[in-house]
């Protein structure tokens, strides 16, 4: 398996919103972070991957299988975790195990019990009595206990405290130690993705705005703070976004190394994934 997920030219037209010509690839043994503002197309992309909505164009291959023609076989190998628990409040973790055992051929009850113990989850506590963090741990325990090869996580760490998030990120990193495994994680918490993601795809207004390996993106882009006079001297080909205020200007620089060579007197600072998002959304080049 070269790619756990391969999307080519995916398009979905809602009329008021179009997910347009999205392509991405997630190699085995890696984590892809899917980022973007609300309404950028992240959830639409995931729904298309899971074949929950009809796409208008494009192809999607999961674990070397077509996600429509071989949907049942594909979904046996996918663990799905959403930002809200899928389990009814009246259920208990032991009930969840029984239900999941009927849904997946490879369900491993012993593995599920081991995750419950690892996450300090009581088998007999009602789902409605669990904190948000504990509900998320239950969802992840269920997602991992049928031995999936691909995890799809849609805002799985949203609203969780830093300690719980860090614990879950460790689980994700452990999962991809197997080169036959991979993860696609959609998240607004870009700092989490900076810790674990190998690749990043940034969707903006239904299109791929930025894409590449996380390390290369963070190394390539830079943040320039300067006066309007200094900014006027800069070749606009270097700039991915500009913001101006009463105190001066800020700009997102595309090629930090080349910019420094061309303008050695203008300091360029490192950026975060959040900086790249903010400049793209609010500081589009004028």
How would you characterize the overall build of this protein?
The protein starts with a strand and ends with a helix. The longest helix has 14 residues, at 162-175. The strands form three sheets. It has a six-stranded mixed beta sheet with strand order 6-7-8-3-9-10, with helices on both faces. Strands 2-1-4-5 form a four-stranded antiparallel beta sheet. It has a four-stranded antiparallel beta sheet with strand order 12-13-11-14. It contains eleven helices and 14 strands. It is α/β, with parallel strands linked by helices and 286 residues long. The radius of gyration is 21 Å and the shape is elongated. The mean pLDDT is 93. The protein has helices at residues 42-49, 71-76, 93-103, 109-118, 132-144, 162-175, 190-196, 214-220, 228-233, 256-262, 273-282, and strands spanning 3-13, 18-27, 31-35, 57-62, 65-66, 78-81, 150-154, 182-186, 199-204, 207-213, 222-226, 239-245, 248-253, 268-269. Helix content is 35%, strand content 28%.
Brief overview:
With 286 residues, the protein is of the alpha/beta class.
> What share of residues are in beta strands?
25-35%
SS class: alpha/beta
Which percent bin holds the helix content? 25-40%
- The coarse silhouette is elongated
Distance from first to last alpha carbon: 44 Å
Query: What's the helix-strand series?
Result: EEEHEEHEHHHEHEHEEHEHEEHEH
Main beta sheet: strand number and arrangement? Answer: 6 strands, mixed
Mean pLDDT, all residues: 93
**Biggest β-sheet: strands ordered side by side in the sheet:** 6-7-8-3-9-10
Radius of gyration: 21 Å
In the predicted model, the low-confidence regions spanning at least 5 consecutive residues are none
């Amino acid at each position: 398996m070269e790619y756990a997920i391969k999307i080519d030219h995916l398009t979905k037209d809602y009329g008021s919103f179009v997910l347009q010509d999205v392509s991405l690839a997630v190699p085995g043994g890696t984590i892809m972070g899917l980022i973007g503002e609300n309404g950028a197309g992240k959830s639409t992309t995931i729904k298309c991957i899971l074949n929950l909505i009809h796409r208008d164009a494009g192809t999607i291959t999961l674990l070397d299988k077509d996600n429509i023609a071989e949907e049942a076989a594909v979904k046996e190998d996918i663990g799905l975790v959403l930002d809200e628990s899928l389990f009814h409040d009246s259920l208990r973790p032991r009930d969840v195990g029984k239900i999941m055992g009927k849904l997946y051929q490879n369900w491993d009850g012993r593995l599920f019990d081991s995750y419950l113990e690892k996450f300090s989850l009581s088998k007999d506590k009602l789902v409605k009595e669990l904190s948000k963090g504990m509900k998320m741990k239950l969802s992840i325990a269920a997602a991992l206990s049928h031995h999936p090869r691909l995890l799809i996580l849609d805002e799985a760490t949203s609203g969780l405290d830093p300690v719980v998030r860090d614990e879950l990120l460790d689980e994700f990193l452990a999962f991809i130690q197997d080169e036959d495994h991979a993860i696609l994680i959609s998240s607004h918490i870009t700092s989490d993705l900076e810790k674990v993601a190998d690749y990043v795809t940034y969707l903006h207004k239904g299109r791929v705005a930025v894409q590449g390996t996380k390390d290369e993106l963070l190394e390539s882009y830079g943040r320039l703070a300067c006066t309007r006079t200094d900014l006027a001297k800069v070749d606009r080909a270097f700039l991915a976004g500009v913001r101006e205020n009463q105190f001066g200007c800020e700009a997102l620089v595309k090629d930090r190394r080349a910019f420094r060579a061309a303008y050695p007197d203008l300091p360029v600072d490192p950026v975060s994934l959040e900086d790249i998002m903010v400049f793209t959304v609010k500081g589009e080049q004028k």
